[in-house]
Amino acid sequence: VSDKLCSTEDCIPGTGVYLRHGYIYSSLAGYVLRKNEGEELPVISVVRETETQLLPDVGAIVTCKVTSINPRFAKVHILYVGSTPLKDRFRGTIRKEDVRATEKDKVETYKSFRPGDIVLAKVISLGDVQSNYLLTTAENELGVVVAHSEAGAQMVPISWCEMQCPRTHAKEFRKVARVQPEYLQA
């Protein structure tokens, strides 16, 4: 707070800063951001740590919700990166060949995920404005962690490829995650 950032000859003041005697000072503790948005001078701002946007990065473990499936892939919304909730909505795709590490040619998307399932996945490729993040569940620790049966009950995993409804005892196929303690949230 009150750190001298630069001269007004070098930058235009943005949010979280103030002017004094030709210099721009920080008005709060946080990160300095410089944005050059086609202006002749960059805009300098200071944002609190909680205001910076966390983005899914290659190799990150993400928690996502399945929104739709088809024979080639499952579409998801990424909800968390690690244990940090995301402010913005990011879309992801889990392709059929990225569901599991073995017998990739035998994977059937509808036997792995259903809309509404909560899935742990790993980012394998970054998305952009037009495309989705590419995700994989091809590790034992990745896959469905929460699923609800047609009866509406939260299902219980009974193997790496099946979950069971505690109410009706009906079994449904899923790519079940072997959840590790570090991925569980209290």
Written account of the structure:
The structure is a single chain. The chain is mostly beta strands. It has 2 domains: 3-47, OB fold (Dihydrolipoamide Acetyltransferase, E2P) (Beta Barrel), CATH 2.40.50.100; 60-183, Nucleic acid-binding proteins (OB fold (Dihydrolipoamide Acetyltransferase, E2P)), CATH 2.40.50. The protein has no helices and 15 strands. The chain has strands at residues 4-7, 12-13, 17-20, 23-26, 31-35, 43-47, 61-69, 73-81, 84-95, 118-125, 133-136, 143-146, 156-157, 162-164, 171-173. The strands form 4 sheets. The protein has a 5-stranded mixed β-barrel with strand order 7-8-9-11-10. A hairpin with a 7-residue loop joins strand 10 and strand 11. The model has no long low-confidence stretch (mean pLDDT 85). It is found in: Cytoplasm; Nucleus, Nucleolus. InterPro entries: Csl4, EXOSC1_C, Exosome_cplx_N_dom, NA-bd_OB-fold, S1_domain. Belongs to the CSL4 family. Its main location: cytoplasm. Keywords: Cytoplasm, Exosome, Nucleus, Phosphoprotein, RNA-binding, rRNA processing.
